[in-house]
Design a protein that fits this description.
Shape: elongated
Distance between the termini: 39 Å
Strand content: 15-25%
CATH architecture of the largest domain: 3-Layer(aba) Sandwich
Largest sheet: 6 strands, antiparallel
CATH topology of the largest domain: Rossmann fold
Oligomer: single chain
Radius of gyration: 25 Å
Number of strands: 19
Structural class: alpha+beta
CATH superfamily of the largest domain: Succinyl-CoA synthetase domains
Number of domains: 3
């Protein structure tokens, strides 16, 4: 789960991480009070969407830049009005862009140097890892590709927790070595680590982290993602969820206990198990197709959930074919068959459908499908299924 920058900065403040003062607003009537709350004439105006590259983005009406640094309160009001309700397109939003429903006014900070700092889970080592780089303000992926030597990784054993030597290693990697800088970094890194653990974060990122000419260390930007599997422990984080930033199909899927992620292809996948779902998408690509989604119905889905999965799949206008790939361990192939039949009765199944069933109650499931009268194609293996669906949509 993602949240907006202004929400992330509120969490930063809660955990003692220094950020510029700011005010987020959702309507023009609030603009004046928000701008007046900012000290000084120089103000940063930021569009709030769940996507990176906002500063280099372009609005659909031609207005350029989803992040503006302006020299007066009047200019801040004008920039905010140009952004609010407008659609911002960045390299992460895709061509459709995202509508800006919140504008964030913040104090402008003088910058002496920019850095990159983040903490996330290293799945290879099963440990949190600090990622630090002197190349702040840039895409970390670009830094990793072009100058990997400028990225430092400091792992923290969760059994032992964060120690002073970890914090010194991060600070020294960034070249922040004076007594005052080490003191500030000690507090900042403690807050960052505590936030990461206390809120079950998947990522906490500051890009850029800056030093000011006066020597202060400030988080100029903030990005926080959460482990969705842990949200049941954090109703206060769930309350920050902005459904307007999420794909409606993904929202509907979550309500039914389904794991769904929309993709850009035209072959929908209905699979049980995340590993099998990823393998299914890979083999579709292998045979020249493009998956339209990741959809995992899980090991204990019922007929109603399978029917809902089909309804969500078919609500995507890009879907030209469906591949059902089920391995019945806990899941019964009979349940899947009943769900497919039920879906066909409730939604218009007007695209090619290939079904591959294997495992628990597979004979019963195949028999139900054979006797249903549905127009579908059976497959004996995953490769056979992927090859057939690709061929069918290319006819």
């Amino acid at each position: 789960m993602n949240i907006h920058e202004y929400q992330a900065k509120e969490l930063f403040t809660e955990f003692g991480i220094p950020v510029p003062a700011g005010k987020a607003v959702q309507n023009v009537e609030q603009f004046q009070a928000a701008v007046d709350s900012i000290s000084g004439e120089k103000i940063v105006v930021k569009s709030q969407i769940h996507a990176g590259g906002r500063g280099k983005g372009t609005f659909t009406d031609g207005y350029k830049g989803g992040v503006k640094v302006v020299d007066s309160k009047e200019a801040a009001l004008d920039a905010g009005k140009a952004m609010l309700g407008n659609t911002l397109v960045t390299h992460q939003t895709g061509p459709k862009g995202r509508e800006v429903k919140t504008v964030y006014f913040t104090e402008a900070s003088a910058i002496a140097k920019e850095y990159y700092l983040a903490i996330l889970l290293d799945r290879e080592n099963s440990q949190p890892v600090f990622i630090a780089s002197t190349e702040g303000g840039m895409d970390i992926e670009k830094v990793a590709a072009e100058t990997p030597e400028k990225i430092a990784r400091i792992h923290v054993d969760p059994a032992g927790g964060l120690h002073p030597f970890h914090k010194r290693a991060v600070a020294f990697a960034l070249g922040l070595t004076t007594k005052e800088q080490l003191k500030q970094m000690d507090k900042l890194l403690t807050g960052l680590y505590d936030l990461f653990w206390a809120k079950d974060c998947a990522l906490v990122e500051i890009n850029p982290l800056i030093t000011t000419p006066e020597g202060d260390i400030v988080a100029l930007d903030a990005k926080v993602n959460f482990d969705s599997n842990a949200l049941y422990r954090h109703p206060e984080i769930v309350a920050l969820r902005d459904l307007g930033e999420e794909d409606p199909k993904e929202i509907e899927a979550s309500k039914s206990g389904l794991s769904y992620i929309a993709l850009d292809g035209n072959i929908a996948c209905l699979v049980n198990g995340a590993g099998l779902a990823m393998a299914t998408m890979d083999i579709i690509k292998h045979f020249g197709g493009n998956p339209a989604n990741f959809l995992d119905v899980g090991g204990g889905a019922n007929e109603q959930q399978v029917t809902e999965a089909f309804r969500i799949i078919l609500s995507d206008p890009n879907v030209e074919g469906i591949l059902v790939n089920i391995f019945g361990g806990i899941m019964s192939c009979k349940t899947i068959a009943l769900g497919i039949i039920g879906a066909a009765k409730n939604v218009e199944l007007n695209v090619p459908l290939v079904v591959r069933l294997e495992g628990n109650e597979v004979k019963e499931g195949k028999k139900l499908l054979d006797e249903s009268g549905l127009k579908l194609t059976s497959a004996d293996s995953l490769a056979d299924a992927a090859k057939k669906i690709v061929e069918l949509i290319q006819k």
